[in-house]
Amino acid sequence: GKGNYRHFMEKELHEHPAVLGDTLRQYLDPKTLEVRLPRLPFDPARIGRLTISACGSAFLAGMVGRYWIEQLARLPVDADVASEFRYRNPPLADGGAAILISQSGETADNMAALRLLREAGQRVLSVVNVPESSMARESDGALLTVAGPEIGVASTKAFTAQLAVLACLAIGFGRARRELSTLDEGRLAQTLLEVPSHAAAILEQDAQIRELAMEVAKARDVLFLGRGAMYPIALEGALKLKEISYIHAEGYAAGEMKHGPIALIDSDVPVIALCPSGPLFEKTASNLQEAAARGGRVMAFTDAEGEAALRRFAERVIVLPRIGEFATPILYAIPVQLLAYHVAVLKGTDVDQPRNLAKSVTVE
Ligand code: M6R
């Protein structure tokens, strides 16, 4: 049941800390700070390229995964939504490898991609939440997210659990490919292990996020901006908002705004910025300043180090816990999901069962 929560989505949002802890402990030894992966269907040190495919939020997790794997393991990654993947007729070298990501493990588009991949001689690893699902069974190997059942149509804890698994995979690949030292691995593992308690702290900022939601609920269009691994989180924020509040939202790479979408900016469009301190901060902040200079209402998520710079032009700044750059996509996914939740509640939509959508999409 929902316990004391109004909706399954709210309950599931509050499960983030526990689910992240459980999923990380599955693949990371908190004592030795080592990633421990089960036997994989391919050797990450011997592949020249990796395909990632999934749908919806799971695909956005895959986009973050691409970023991490390319950074930490120097392995080229191709990421495509499953419904398009096969129409590209992608050239796949024999002996190649792929990762499919899914909460349900029953998404028809993924199953079609899975079959195509296997016919093309690829070894397929699934990251999946339902162990007895078709995807888990038909893949060459499966890594489970430890999210428990997810009832709300909008994916929440399953998404961050997917990110946790992909983060561990990226570290494991990095080590296997000799791109990461033991020291690097320990540092990254330490950062990941800080995520659950910071996730709990973010859930306690609920009232602040609800205030932001009251502004967002009045808008007709909303822009979400991020750079680097925060760009897929901007897309996740926009997807969640569309899905459950029916407000039109778009996610954009912050630097791409000047190539078109900046024309949309006026004083009616909230610009939600995902802008943690770190190597991408300065450039992102200057993109946001451009939006503010054109009358845009910048509402930024950042940390204590980014706060002062953003306060100069942002209408609202929500200060999140500071964490190593590596883990910021996992952490920043939580407030954007929470924001969409509150906007939907304010709008009175059917949060757990939004119109036209199904939890598991079994048609192509
Ligand atoms: O079960 P799956 O993870 O394969 O589902 C994929 C998408 O249908 C799913 O992520 C969808 O986008 C969610 N409703 C997003 O919140």
From TrEMBL:
Gene Ontology molecular function, alphabetical: glutamine-fructose-6-phosphate transaminase (isomerizing) activity
Protein keywords: Aminotransferase, Cytoplasm, Glutamine amidotransferase, Repeat, Transferase
Domain SIS: 40-179, 212-354
Principal location: cytoplasm
Active site: K359 (for fru-6p isomerization activity)
Top-tier EC class: transferase
Assembly description: Homodimer.
Record protein name field: Glutamine--fructose-6-phosphate aminotransferase [isomerizing]
